[in-house]
Amino acid sequence: xxxxxxxxxxxxxLSEIWGEQLALCDALEQMADALPAGLGKVHCLRLxxxxxxxxxxAHKLEELLLFPLLQDRAAASPALTAVIDRLxxxxxxxxxxxxxLYDALSARGWxxxxxxxxxxxxxxxxxxxxMRRHIWFDRDVLMPLLLAGSGEEALAELSRxxx
Length: 163
Description:
Blueprint: H1 3-34, H2 41-76, H3 80-109, H4 117-148, H5 152-162
């Protein structure tokens, strides 16, 4: 397969998982907006199970498809190394926070009163806001740069903005 076609196919797969993540963000936002009354036990447990699965799948796809494309460009544009490092760190943060939210939603799903509705609302909003920012950066900044085969100047600017 031609390199350009492979990149386009990779971005189609990434776009699909980013759509799943954004749908999860919407569901989490709806839950946060409905607090304190909107905490159905089954809904909490379903979302709790969904979070790590979607985040893990997204990170694996990004690391399998996006990171190698960035790494290939980093040889010619060293500024991308900082972007790759930042994304790897964000994945670690996202994983840890997904686990915390899983624990909180599972606890509420099993009828435990902790965390409080206020704390859970804060956790939900923090998680989906960070996830949306990550997706928007990848989708709206990195993807167009990679598809356009952007030059060193644009990639250097991206690195300065990522720091």
